[in-house]
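Beta-lactamase: structure tokens wanted.
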Amino acid sequence: MKIKWFGHSCFLITSDNGTRILTDPFDEQVGYPLPHTEADIVTVSHNHFDHDNVSVVKGSFKHIKDAGNFTHGDISIKGISTFHDELGGAKRGKNIVFIYSIDGITICHLGDLGHVLSEEQLEEIGQVDVLLVPIGDIYTIDGDTAIKVIKSINPRISIPMHYKTEHLSFKLAEPERFLEKIDGKRYPGNELTINADNISEYPEVLTLNYL
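Answer:
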């Protein structure tokens, strides 16, 4: 499968048979080039402008924005209800964590997670190969909490998202401190090709480019 980052929390996941999943598409206010692409499935973790711009997606697609279990061909998706803050949603509401099972690989997209995960939530998430984790603070967990979440899930690869870059139009924490504390690496491209045979060849924590 391939995992391509468009910036912020938006990834295009393409299975070996060509099924495309787009996560959390953003609008023009965010600052990155818009992810004009076709997709078969679009998942939205919560209804904020920087995560739910499904109008950018071309063609017809399955729109998933709730907790529950979903299937599309040979792909299974689980949505788990969490919160956008550390106060049970009192400040920013709910957030859906999505688990994708594709080509024998399990990917977990944490959306705008705002808290450490409970034992029950960790059990629901289960074993993860690739974790897409916010680190930018302010609207999500910060880098230190992200490290705790990574350790609790124990994925094979973690890819940070939702942090300050040159193109992002609003304030978030930059990734350098997080990467230094967890010995993260910078990957030279915006797309990974991952399968069961090569996943161990990647660094345990890596950032992608978005252009």
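Residues 143-153 form the longest helix (11 residues). DSSP finds three helices and 16 strands in the chain.

Cheers.
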